[in-house]
Every structure is written in C-alpha cells, then in structure tokens.
Amino acid sequence: MYLTIKETAEYLSYPESYIEGLVQQKRIRAIFDGQQYLINKDQFTTHLRQVEKYKEIVEEILNEPIPEDVDVKDED
Q1: What is the pLDDT of residue 19?
Q2: pTM value?
Q3: pLDDT tens digit string along 18-75?
Q4: pLDDT at 74
Q5: Which residues on neighbouring strands pair with residue 45, listed in sequence order?
Q6: Among 6, 18, 19, 32, which one is most buried in terms of CB atoms within 10 A?
Q7: CATH code of the domain covering residue 31
C-alpha cells in the first residue's frame, strides 16, 4: 500500500516537512508519479516494531524499584 507524504506523516506521527526532508535525502524510499511522492507503507514495519520494543524496555526500567544502597551510613 502506498501513502502520500501527508498520510505518511500522520501514520508515523511526524510533521510533513520532516517526511519531505527524508524523501529528499533519500532516507525514505519513494516513487514520484509526476504529481506527488508515494511511499510504500511496508518499509516502516520494522521501524515501528523497534520503537514499540524500546518503549517497553524504557517502561520496564522506569518501573524497576530502586535498590537500597549498601553504602548508606546510618547516622543515628
């Protein structure tokens, strides 16, 4: 399935100008049909999976309890 730059920006939650820049830099594969750039949606599946995986890892780290420090002196 092919998306326009606007649809791709909405799909990835990025500004249109950012997506246009990536297309111009050839960091995103796109086809120019004479009027607009068309971007294959399937090229982002790996990226989106990695983003979800990193979100889960960060959430696990943030939810991990802080261990009690062994070197803390008892100052009673």
Answers
A1: 92
A2: 0.63
A3: 999 999 999 889 999 999 999 999 888 887 888 889 999 999 999 988 877 777 666 6
A4: 65
A5: none
A6: 19
A7: 3.90.105
The domain of 20 spans 2-63
Asked whether residue 42 is assigned to any structural domain, the reply reads yes
Exposed, middle or buried by CB within 10 Å (0-12, 13-18, 19+), for 19? buried
DSSP string for the chain: -EE-HHHHHHHHT--HHHHHHHHHTTSS-EEE-SSSEEEEGGGGHHHHHHHHHHHHHHHHHHHSPPPPPTT-----
Residue 72 located in a structural domain: no
Our measurement of the distance from residue 28's CA atom to the centroid of its chain's CA atoms, rounded to an integer in Å, reads 13
**What is the C-alpha end-to-end distance of the chain, expressed in Å?**
68
9 in a structural domain: yes
